[in-house]
C-alpha cells in the first residue's frame, strides 16, 4: 500500500521490464542471524513497508511460540536516521510499522521516540527484562541500505536455530494482518511505551561503573575531536563525556547532525581508513586536539586516531585498540581487586579472526581468554553464559572496530568505548605517555602481535564457491594446500565443513556453518591467516597475524615477513586475476 513502491512496480510492468522485476521479486531477502540487510526499494528482495510487516509478523508469531508471557513483558524497538525518499522508506517508518504489528496482537512495545545508538536496544532488553529487541539500522552500509537486527531475551543477538525458526514463521505469515498498514493506531494505544528518558538516564549511570579516574578526567588538558559521521552518535558521546566528568569533545560540525545522504563521505564507515576522517583531522589541527574518536552511523563501532610526534596521524587498527582497551580494562580491574583468587573468575573474549593479544595477556596475568566465532552474536551469547555462572567478563572485541567494555550491553558499543578510550588517554597523559607509546609497551611486555587484514570484492557467488572448493581440493580431491608460496602450512581449520587438522579426531571445536565459507591456515613460521565470506557484503575477507614471544622486538622484520605471507596468500589462494576479484581501494 505504499504509493511510492507501488508506483515503481507499476512503471516496470508498464515498460515490460522483466529483468528489473526479476531483481525485485526473484527471491525474498534471507533472514539470518544478523536479521535482514538490503537496499530499500520495491519488491520482496528489498527493505520496504511490506517486507517489514511480513518480517515482524513472522517474528511476532515465533516469539508467541517461545514466550508464554510475551504479552506481559513485550519488546523494544529502536531506529537510526536512515531514509530513502524515492521509495518512501525510513528507519523510523519501519520501526513504527513493526511496533504496530506487535501492538495489534496485544504485545507491549517500548518504541524509542527518537534515534538512538544500536547498543541502547540490547541494553533495554536486559534492563527492562523484555522478550526481544529490534534495531532498524544498516550500520555503516551505503546510504540506500537498511537493516533489521534482532536481539533475544538474554540481551544478545540471536544465534541459530532462532534465525531458521523466524525465517520459517515469516514464510507462514506473508499476508498483512487487517490493520498492518495503519501505524497511526499505535499513538493512542496503551501498549505503546517510550523508554527514551529512562534508558538515557540508566545507561549513563551504568557505564560510570567503568569510570576509575574522575579526578584526572576533571583536570586533563587533553583535547578530543569526535565525529558521528552523519549518524546518531553525537548527543550520546557528549553525554558519556559528561558522565565521566570529561570536557566535551569538539564535534566535527559538517558531520554532527544525522543526515541519511552521508554527504561528506564516500562510505560512512570509519573502518575504511583515513578518507572518512579528513574533516576530523582538519578540526583537530585547528583546535589543537591530539585524539580523534569516530563512531560509525549507528554508534556501535569506534575508530581512534592519534597525532604522532612527527605531526602524522596514526589510525589504530581494531586489533591495536583491542590490545590497548584489554590492557586498560584489566589494569583498572586489578587495581580495584586486590583479592588474587578473584582472577580465576575473570574472562576476556575475542573472535577467531581477531588478534590473539588478549590470549597473551591472559596467559601472563592468569585470567581466562576464550575465542568465539566471528561476530558479536557469539561473544554476547558466550558472555551471558559465563556471567550466569558467576564469572566476570571484563571485555570482548573484534578486529572490525567493535568493543564491549561494559557488561550492561552484550554487544559492541561505540559510545562506552569512546569515553573509556578518552579516560585511558587522559590517564596516560599524566604519565607523559601517548596511546602509541603505551601500545608499544603492551607489545614489549606480552609479545608483538602484527596483523594485516583486507578484502576482495566479488559479486558472483559461483566464483566465491569455486575459490573455496579449489582450496579444499588443492592437490587432488579432498586435499588442502601444504604450502603457500614459500610458507609451509602446519595446520588447517575449516569451519564450513567442520575439519580441524589439530584435533585428535580432526573435528573442529567451534560451531560450523555450511552457509558461510571460512578456512584458517596456520603456518610453520607462527603466522595465522583466515579467509572468509562476509554475511552482509559481497566481500571475501582475509585476516592474518604473526605473534612473536615477548623479547622479539625486531618489529620491522616481523612486518616484512607478514607482508610476504599476505602477498603469497593473495597470489596463490585468492588468485585475483584468474577469479576477476576487485581489490579494496582506499
Automatic annotation (TrEMBL):
InterPro entries referenced in this protein's UniProt entry, alphabetically: A-D-PHexomutase_a/b/a-I, A-D-PHexomutase_a/b/a-I/II/III, A-D-PHexomutase_a/b/a-II, A-D-PHexomutase_a/b/a-III, A-D-PHexomutase_C_sf, A-D-PHexomutase_CS, Alpha-D-phosphohexomutase_SF
Keywords: Carbohydrate metabolism, Cytoplasm, Glucose metabolism, Isomerase, Magnesium, Metal-binding, Phosphoprotein
Entry-linked Pfam families: PGM_PMM_I, PGM_PMM_II, PGM_PMM_III
GO molecular function, one term: magnesium ion binding
Domain Alpha-D-phosphohexomutase alpha/beta/alpha: 29-175, 201-307, 346-446
Any one of the GO BP annotations: purine ribonucleoside salvage
Cofactors: Mg(2+)
Localization per record: Cytoplasm
GO CC list: cytoplasm; nucleus
Xref: CDD domains: PGM2 (cd05799)
UniProt family annotation: Belongs to the phosphohexose mutase family.
Name of the molecule in the record: Phosphoglucomutase-2
Species per Swiss-Prot/TrEMBL record: Spheniscus mendiculus
Amino acid at each position: 500500500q505504499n504509493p511510492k513502491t507501488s508506483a515503481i512496480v507499476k512503471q516496470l510492468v508498464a515498460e515490460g521490464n522483466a529483468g528489473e522485476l526479476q531483481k525485485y521479486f526473484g527471491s525474498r531477502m534471507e533472514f539470518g542471524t544478523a536479521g535482514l540487510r538490503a537496499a530499500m526499494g520495491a519488491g520482496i528482495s528489498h527493505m520496504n513497508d511490506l517486507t517489514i510487516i511480513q518480517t515482524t509478523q513472522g517474528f511476532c508469531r515465533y516469539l508467541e511460540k517461545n514466550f508464554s508471557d510475551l504479552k506481559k513483558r513485550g519488546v523494544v524497538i529502536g531506529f537510526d536516521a536512515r531514509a530513502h525518499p524515492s521509495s518512501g522508506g525510513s528507519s523510523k517508518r519501519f520501526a513504527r510499522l513493526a511496533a504496530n504489528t506487535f501492538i495489534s496482537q496485544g504485545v507491549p512495545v517500548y518504541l524509542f521516540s527518537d534515534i538512538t545508538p544500536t547498543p541502547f536496544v540490547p541494553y533495554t532488553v536486559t534492563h527492562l527484562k523484555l522478550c526481544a529487541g529490534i534495531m532498524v539500522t544498516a550500520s555503516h552500509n551505503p546510504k540506500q541500505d537498511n537493516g533489521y537486527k534482532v536481539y533475544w531475551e538474554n540481551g544478545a543477538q540471536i544465534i541459530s536455530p532462532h534465525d531458521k525458526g523466524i525465517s520459517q514463521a515469516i514464510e507462514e505469515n506473508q499476508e498483512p494482518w487487517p490493520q498492518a498498514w495503519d501505524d497511526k493506531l499505535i499513538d493512542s494505544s496503551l501498549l505503546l511505551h517510550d523508554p527514551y528518558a529512562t534508558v538515557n538516564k540508566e545507561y549513563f549511570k551504568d557505564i560510570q561503573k567503568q569510570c576509575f579516574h574522575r579526578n584526572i578526567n576533571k583536570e586533563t588538558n587533553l583535547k578530543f575531536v569526535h565525529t558521528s559521521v552523519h549518524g546518531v552518535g553525537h548527543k550520546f558521546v557528549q553525554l558519556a563525556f559528561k558522565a565521566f566528568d570529561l570536557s566535551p569533545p569538539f564535534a566535527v560540525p559538517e558531520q554532527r547532525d544525522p543526515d541519511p545522504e552521508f554527504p561528506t563521505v564516500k562510505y560512512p564507515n570509519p573502518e575504511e581508513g583515513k578518507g572518512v576522517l579528513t574533516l576530523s583531522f582538519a578540526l583537530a589541527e585547528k583546535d589543537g586536539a591530539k585524539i580523534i574518536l569516530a563512531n560509525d552511523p549507528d554508534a556501535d563501532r569506534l575508530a581512534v586516531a592519534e597525532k604522532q610526534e612527527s605531526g602524522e596521524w596514526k589510525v589504530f587498527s581494531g586489533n591495536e585498540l583491542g590490545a590497548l582497551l584489554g590492557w586498560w580494562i584489566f589494569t583498572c580491574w586489578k587495581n580495584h581487586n586486590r583479592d588474587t583468587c578473584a582472577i580465576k573468575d575473570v574472562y576476556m573474549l575475542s573472535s577467531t579472526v581477531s588478534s590473539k593479544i588478549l590470549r597473551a595477556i591472559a596467559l601472563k596475568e592468569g585470567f581466562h581468554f576464550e575465542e568465539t566465532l566471528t561476530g558479536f552474536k557469539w561473544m554476547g551469547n558466550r558472555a551471558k553464559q559465563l556471567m550466569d555462572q558467576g564469572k566476570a567478563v571484563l571485555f570482548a572485541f573484534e578486529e572490525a572496530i567493535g568493543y564491549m567494555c561494559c557488561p550492561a550491553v552484550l554487544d559492541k558499543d561505540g559510545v562506552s568505548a569512546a569515553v573509556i578510550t578518552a579516560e585511558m588517554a587522559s590517564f596516560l597523559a599524566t604519565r607523559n605517555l601517548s596511546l602509541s607509546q603505551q601500545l608499544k609497551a603492551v607489545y614489549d611486555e606480552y609479545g608483538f602481535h602484527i596483523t594485516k587484514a583486507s578484502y576482495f570484492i566479488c559479486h558472483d557467488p559461483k566464483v566465491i564457491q569455486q575459490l573455496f572448493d579449489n582450496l579444499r581440493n588443492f592437490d587432488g580431491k579432498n586435499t588442502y594446500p601444504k604450502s603457500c608460496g614459500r610458507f609451509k602450512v602446519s595446520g588447517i581449520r575449516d569451519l564450513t565443513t567442520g575439519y580441524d587438522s589439530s584435533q585428535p579426531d580432526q573435528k573442529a571445536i567451534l560451531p560450523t556453518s555450511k552457509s558461510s565459507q571460512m578456512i584458517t591456515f596456520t603456518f610453520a613460521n607462527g603466522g595465522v591467516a583466515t579467509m572468509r565470506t562476509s554475511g552482509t557484503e559481497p566481500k571475501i575477507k582475509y585476516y592474518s597475524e604473526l605473534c612473536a614471544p615477548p623479547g622479539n622486538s625486531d618489529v620491522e622484520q616481523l612486518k616484512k615477513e607478514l607482508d610476504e605471507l599476505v602477498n603469497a596468500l593473495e597470489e596463490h589462494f585468492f588468485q585475483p586475476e584468474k577469479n576477476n576479484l576487485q581489490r579494496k581501494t582506499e
